[in-house]
Design a protein that fits this description.
α1 runs parallel beside α2 and α4 packs across α5. A 6-stranded mixed beta sheet has the order 1-2-3-5-7-10, sandwiched between helices. The protein is globular. Helices cover 46% and strands 17% of the residues. The chain is α/β, with parallel strands linked by helices.
Length: 260
Amino acid sequence: MTFNNILSETENGITTITINRPKKLNALNQETIKELHKAFKAANEAKETKVILITGSGEKAFVAGADISEFADFSVEEGRDLAAKGQELLFDFVQNLETPVIAAVNGFALGGGLELAMACHFRVASNNAKMGLPEVSLGVIPGYGGTQRLPQLIGKGRAMELIMTAGMIDANQALNYGLVNHVTSQEELLPFCKNLALKISRNSMVAIAQAIQAINANYQDGVDGFEVEINAFGYCFGTDDFEEGTSAFLEKRKADFKGE
């Protein structure tokens, strides 16, 4: 699969998707969002992919935001459509993937970039990372899920302040807030993320997919997350991975999961 704005490669069960618009600080335009959708969809469907990493090219930015030149003249209806399609194609899509997604945040993650990182299952940042949702400084608000996911991750008060001030926080403050799980040097960012991915990939991918579904259910209106967990728990009992995992435990050996 050939792309204009992203790169995708798979090695050792890890698919690394790199947003490759360094001259634009990897800003998200509509074409890039569509390409990311296709890349994530292909990786999720590929049997050999156990974990997906998403990062940005160069040392300056993960994603510095949306490509403002694309929508500066949009009408109310066009703006609403932009947010709705973007959430469906990419941000909600990533959040609900069965395959674990780790954001390797290198440099600026602003606006749509932070929203993309927050849609991933968890985040690791390099020590030069800067994160924020500056949309109100442009007379608009975050439209790709930022007003919903940021409070879930760091709490309502901190999210209100960060959004209202249009400010940025550094990697260590993001770690303190719980916005990222780990902070590394720039050089160690991808190796660290790949090591995490390898640890994940040793476990049952069937069970992990069910866990993602159950955890996400807690944040869906009108959905009983406990009921989703009960059903997902029961589902696991009918899988080959459950049989292998319990047998390996009882036989005091390492499990060899097939993802079935």
